[in-house]
Design brief:
This protein has five helices and eight strands; from the N terminus they run H-E-E-E-H-E-E-H-H-E-E-E-H. By secondary structure, the protein is of the alpha/beta class. Strands 3-2-1-5 form a four-stranded mixed β-sheet. Strands 4-8-7-6 form a four-stranded mixed β-sheet. The two termini are about 25 Å apart.
């Protein structure tokens, strides 16, 4: 679901976690515009983590993650999907707050990780090249 939104070049916000977005440059060639992930202020404050240097602020125009769309894609009830997403984010937050390294795969888009208190999201080369048509 997230991958479909980003593939369509739509900004999406995962509450209490962060936003996937694109820089806004009306004159830019879409094949040159790379996506980025920005941790939410709430995640940064709650987990006492820093965003990797060079990160961009979250997009205020990003649509919130739509649980109805998630439930349709997962073929599960909306309430079940909400509990799963909330629990995953809760476990990630707990691990980060405790100072443990964390890696969360968001296939096929890439991987979120926290090491030594610094949170980063690395987009998979295959996603960027194959789905977004951006040269590596």
């Amino acid at each position: 679901m997230l991958a479909a939104k980003v593939t369509a070049r739509k900004a999406v916000q995962v509450p209490k976690f962060g936003s996937f977005s694109f820089p806004s440059d009306p004159g830019a060639d879409p094949s040159d515009v790379r996506p980025f992930f920005a941790l939410s202020g709430e995640f940064i404050r709650t987990c006492k983590v820093r965003a990797k240097a060079g990160g961009r602020p979250g997009s205020s125009s990003a649509a919130r993650l739509n649980m109805l769309e998630v439930s349709k894609a997962a073929r599960q009830g909306k309430a079940v999907c909400r509990v799963v997403v909330d629990n995953v984010l809760k476990r990630v937050s707990e691990a980060v707050s405790a100072g443990r390294p964390v890696t969360l795969a968001l296939n096929p888009m890439g991987e979120f990780s926290v090491r030594r208190g610094i949170g980063t999201f690395r987009f998979a080369d295959a996603f960027v090249v194959d789905r977004l048509g951006i040269a590596p």
